[in-house]
Task: inverse folding
């Protein structure tokens, strides 16, 4: 069984977000980490091949931080990795899916896993768009998988209000993995050392048949920081007086009551 897992490098929450004079994001000072949802996907893929024989390939696109994430996937147990070197900020979800699909078609994968969404944008679009590009069936919000049998597998999906459903999906397929499906392993020292010897294939969009990056269907017109908030107001007086003043502010000024 061949499984591919899509990974993404996302901006660390602690990174300082600044805009230049033209309203563009200053990227040179950003730090990156692996998208947390993707770690659940890597772990689930490794568990599936451990019990059913096979191998896992991790794949990503981007520049800063991208290879670092692949190395973590390799240290967790993936057999090899694919890095598509391009500017992710020049792509929208459809463009990301098109590039990933072009690379994945060469591998004839039985299953493609991805985190249900990314920590930074949270669009939850790439997984289903990738399935459309590949012509695969797709199931989202997966919280449980089972061993494939006769070209299909059963998966458990998370629904609204704490409900779940079990569906059978034909392979090949794309699954988007929800957090909590498992406990992602920490790479061992042995795994980290082994990751340095595993194959990491570098590709460019040109290698995948793209003379230019796919034109985005959705474009950001501009960025701006939220307006600064007013300073906190300190209420003085007895408990009764401050409570009455707080109620007045909420009712008359904030219109919250």
Result:
């Amino acid at each position: 069984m061949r499984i591919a897992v899509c990974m993404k490098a996302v901006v660390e929450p602690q990174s300082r977000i600044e805009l230049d004079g033209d309203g563009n994001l200053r990227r040179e000072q950003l730090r990156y980490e692996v998208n947390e949802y993707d770690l659940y996907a890597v772990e689930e893929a490794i568990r599936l091949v451990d019990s059913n024989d096979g191998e896992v390939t991790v794949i990503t696109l981007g520049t800063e931080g991208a290879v670092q994430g692949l190395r973590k996937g390799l240290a967790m147990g993936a057999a090899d990795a694919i890095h598509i070197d391009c500017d992710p900020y020049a792509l929208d979800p459809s463009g990301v899916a098109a590039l990933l699909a072009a690379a994945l078609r060469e591998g004839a994968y039985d299953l493609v896993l991805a985190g249900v969404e990314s920590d930074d944008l949270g669009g939850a679009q790439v997984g289903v768009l990738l399935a459309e590009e590949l012509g695969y069936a797709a199931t989202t919000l997966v919280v449980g998988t089972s061993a494939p049998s006769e070209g299909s597998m059963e998966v458990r999906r998370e629904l609204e209000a704490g409900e779940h459903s079990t569906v059978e999906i034909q392979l090949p397929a794309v699954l988007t993995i929800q957090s909590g499906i498992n406990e992602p392993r920490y790479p061992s020292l042995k795994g980290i050392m082994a990751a340095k010897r595993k194959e990491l294939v570098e590709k460019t969009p040109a290698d995948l048949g793209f003379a230019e990056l796919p034109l985005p269907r959705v474009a950001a017109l501009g960025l701006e920081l939220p307006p600064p908030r007013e300073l906190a107001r300190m209420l003085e007086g007895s408990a009764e007086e401050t409570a009455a003043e707080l109620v007045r502010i909420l009712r008359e000024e904030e219109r919250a009551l």
Remarks:
- The longest helix spans residues 36-52.
